[in-house]
Amino acid sequence: MLRLFSVMTLLVLLSTASAAVAQDPPAVVGAAADARDALRTMIEAAKKEGSVGYFDTVLQPETHDELTAAFRKTYGMPAGFPVRYTLSTTLNLITRVEQEVGSGNVTIDIASIASPPWINGLVRAGHIMQYDSPAYQAFGSAFAAGLGKPGYYAFNGAYIFVPTWNADTLNFKGKSWKDILGAVPPGRMSLNDSGNSATGLLAYMGLRSILGIEYFKDMAKMKPVFILRSEQTAERLISGQDLMAFGGMPTRVHQYNERGANLKFILPEEGVVLLGQASFILAKAPHPNAAKLWLDFTLSEPGQTILSKREALISGRSGFKSPLPEFAPPIDSLKLIKMDWDSIDQDAIRRAKAEWQSIFMP
Amino acid sequence: MNTGAQGRFLQRALPIAGVTIGVLLIAGPFLATIIRSLLVWDGDSVAIEAGNFLRLFGDPRFVSAALNTLIAGSCTTILALLLGFSLAWLVARTDMPGRSWLETANLVPFFLSPYVGAISWIYLLAPHGGLLPWLARTYLGVSLEWLDIYSMGGVIFVLTLFYTPYVYLFVIGPLRQMDAALEDAARVHGASFWYTLSHITLPLVMPALLSAGLIVFVTSAGLFDVPLALASPRGIRFMPTEIFSMVQYPSDLGRAAAFGIVVLTVTIVLTLLQRRFIANRRFDTVTGKGYRPRQIRLRTGGKIAALTLEAVYVGGGVILPLVALLMVSFSKLWTGRFLWRTATTGNFEYVLTKYDLTRTAITNSLFLALVGATWGVALAVLQSYYLTRGNPKRRALVDALLSLPLGIPGIILGLGFLILAIRTPLYSTLTIILIAYIARFFPFATRTVTAMFLAINPELEQSARSAGASWLQTMRLIVLPLLRPALIAAWLMLFVIFIRELGATILLYAQGTETISVAMVVLSERSSGYVAALAVVQLVMLLAAFAIMRLTRTSMSQG
After folding, report:
1. Which of A153, A164, A292, B199 is deepest in the core (most CB within 10 A)?
2. Beta bridge pairs of residue A164
3. Cβ of B234 and A91 within 8 Å?
4. Complex ipTM
5. B150 interface with A at CB cutoff 8 Å
6. Is B332 in CB contact (< 8 Å) with chain A?
């Protein structure tokens, strides 16, 4: 009788345990045994928070939709768990975050933007939540290269600005940044509006360090059109308004070519500025637990795969295999222009902006 | 308190409350902007000084933005006055064929968003990629590449198209009411057609022209949308885009506020000058003397010229933009021309069913327009009651105060509300956008309702009160039914304006509080197809409001 009772008790306990495991979402099942309870607690807290919101400067809505669906599944969130997303220009995103942290009235949970100098300033001012994402373990070499700060942020994908053209309207054979000068008639090339784009300005600072100011003065003579968004840059090439884009994005080349365009780009021999789309949680984020889960997911292998496949973003995860090597080559295959992100402060940015404006918008 | 005393209390208190709310709505952002313009931070310490103004005036970017704004505002005003007056005169005073249809068609651009207009004209006239240059080159062998929509000329052209109906609305009433005998007398005494027009007709509609000119100048110069789309790509600075840029990181709210104060001062001075000009002259067009409106018979050449003018205006303001939007919205990839092989309904499917932002934006815009228009009209009724039945000694001052928002550009009002709300729970809510909308646009409703109030003889109310009706009963059973046409007109006008508003919203929106216009700016930076599809959706909503207005036979020109 006692034996029967013991067996039945064991069966009940086993079935309860297996039911618990069966109810656990994939993230918990895949987590280390000692981290499971903490993760379960975080997921429950996130559910209670009810939503999460992030601002981004690159991701297209379709990518957001795929990320959201995978995120909900990974953490077992309800099907309707809202993940609010806003695609913004870099400067608008910075302005909003500055306004919110300045007033103490924070509505944004996570922001992703390629502006390390500004983010480092936020870290110093205590506006970024200290959080050691388990995903950071795979970003060791990126941190070592200065592309992130352990405990605060890593980049969920990096991109580059490179010369881009429409092969239907231009037969360009150049290999260097210098080949662009004079390649198209005046008024037929677009240029990132670095006066109103934080990342455009950083790219300008990097390129200026190797090409010199005279190069940009010569470029001003080409009467470029100033564009803020990479999507607009691509669309203007496709509609024939521009023949060349000084700073197109391989991301957009991939996305528009998928829809039937015939855009091309080069990786100039002098090198490119790698702009890491740093993701961070604001210290006063209204949904901190949901934000941590979202950050963990976007930096994880499945999250990085979606970002790389859809946006052709370059991953910073060690050993990550790019699904689109033509558009998102591995970092170590790129010739990168060296940027000392820690030494770029607000004064340096202001000086660069004033210089750019004096050249292109005197 | 007995019923009579209660009625008298409500009769006094409610209109005063309406006026007080109106004054507070204006004073809040106005004072916040003034105070912010005078505060200068140095580290942690703050001082009250004129540093922001000094930096502003010493900045060549300010000078260039102010100059460009002045040029565009002036040219738009002159062209809109010429075009608006001509169209109104043709419809009201001549026997031009198709007048009744054209009377309606001339008004359609009023209901369209200037931002959508600007985007449409980019599709139509972008150098090297526009539809019209391609058609002209392909079928006529003519090069139109010298036409560049990304220019000062492009900004003035699009602003003129969309501000002409303002002038049209202001002058068509006086032109209809004018006694033709005045013109006949001039012609009998040997005056030429042009002499009669310039010495008789134009002076008689001068108050309407001046009012329209002032509103067109102030609102077109303060419009953010069109310069954003057409001037920014060429680095041409305008006041609204420059203020927006100053608010961007690294923000300089003090200098932006100082810029706002400069613009407000200019606006107030212009308004005072206009009032003074009108006050010193007599412009009676309607007298007790009986007269019959008479139409001027156009010759064949005149009819052709009139219809050509109408075709250019309606074509440029309505038909061509609509065709361009439809083509782009049904294209998978916009290559500068419509290709059947890339035709798709995917853009509509996406913005209507798949993209959270546009669905949220449509819901928010509808909420803001429905609730905002209702509150705006309620406020207008109370204010109009005060302005027509209230203390006669204070009416002029109250009227002047309540008219102030007419001259405040949306971006400056948005800036004022941003400064006011940023440290409060109102920040990043739909409520602050709603308040900004009502604050910016209630005078439009108040003017429309006041005009109708003036036509209602107070004796009607007195009779009802003598018969024992309370004030509320009198309002409900006598006054409001008589006001009904004006209330519908004011409500629809606010609805339309709120659906397409961008200037104030662009500084106040947050995640989840985007409106259709904001979504269009976001989408315009991303995909031609999506933005065109959303523009068509907005267009349908605005044209539905227009259709309701026509079906209910509501006139907007009574204000």
Report:
1. A153
2. A245, A265
3. no
4. 0.73
5. yes
6. yes
